[in-house]
Specification:
Helices cover about 30% and strands about 30% of the residues. The protein starts with 6 loop residues before the first strand and ends with a strand. With about 230 residues, the chain is of the alpha/beta class. Helix 1 crosses helix 2 and helix 6 packs across helix 7. It has an 8-stranded mixed β-sheet with strand order 6-7-5-4-8-9-11-10, sandwiched between helices. A 3-stranded antiparallel β-sheet has the order 1-2-3, with no helix packed on it.
Length: about 230
């Protein structure tokens, strides 16, 4: 990954992302990085899970592709005044260089008064839990996605790997079987991807799949649930 020449790209909503020119790929949608993350992972992921589990006081989240930390940051901000305690595990095989993280503008566009928390997310050591608040604990896990072996451990999975065009091995039945195993009964997986092959793979591992309206620039996204 370090040899691929990652750079900063400004997306349509004014928020930044990271591009990989040699792959013609980006960490987020160029139609709006923050808008995409809010739509897919917060509104159709976290908020949906809360609405389906109003009596639960704890949510264990797994992110496949910690990347820039945007999804974790928005999850933290949207849980600040919540009754819910969140334990957030973000897996990343190839951490982003600190120079690129410092060039992102998420703090300025969201909550500049909590800049120290965003910085601590990225400065904290990998594989060491970090308490960002009384109700939010982040653990960044430096590992390949294929190494996930959790069983009935997570309420919510943010599946935010690079697209199937560049990393098809991350969108297979084998990978989604790992995700199905990792979900608790009643758990939910959300992803920006709506490819027919991905939907079929999710169905093949026994998940119930919904096609939802996608974020700006995408017609659809997918949400998959594990039976209780």
């Amino acid at each position: 990954m370090k040899d691929l020449g990652r750079n900063i790209v400004v997306t349509a909503d004014g928020s930044t992302t990271i591009g990989i020119p040699s792959w013609n790929e980006h960490y987020h949608s160029t139609h709006g990085a923050v808008n995409e993350a809010m739509h897919v992972f917060i509104q159709n992921g976290l908020s949906h899970w809360k609405s389906q589990n109003p009596n639960d006081v704890c949510c264990n989240i797994l992110e496949i592709g910690f990347g820039t930390g945007l999804n974790a940051w928005l999850t933290f901000l949207n849980n600040v005044d919540s009754y819910l305690t969140v334990f957030y595990d973000g897996i990343e095989g190839f951490p982003v260089d600190s120079e690129l993280i410092e060039a992102l503008n998420y703090i300025q566009l969201t909550e500049s008064s909590k800049a120290d928390i965003f910085q601590s997310m990225h400065l904290n050591e990998w594989n060491v839990p970090l308490s960002l608040s009384q109700n939010f604990t982040l653990t960044k896990i430096q590992s390949t996605f294929e190494a996930v072996k959790a069983k009935d451990a997570y309420d919510l999975i943010y599946y935010d790997a690079f697209g199937a065009r560049v990393q098809p091995e991350l969108w297979t039945v084998q990978m989604f079987q790992k995700m199905q195993n990792a979900l608790k009964p009643g758990g939910v997986l959300v992803t920006y991807c709506a490819k027919g092959s991905v939907r079929r793979a999710l169905l093949d591992v026994g998940l119930e799949v919904e096609r939802l309206i996608g974020p700006p620039g995408k017609r659809e996204m997918l949400r998959a649930s594990k039976k209780k």
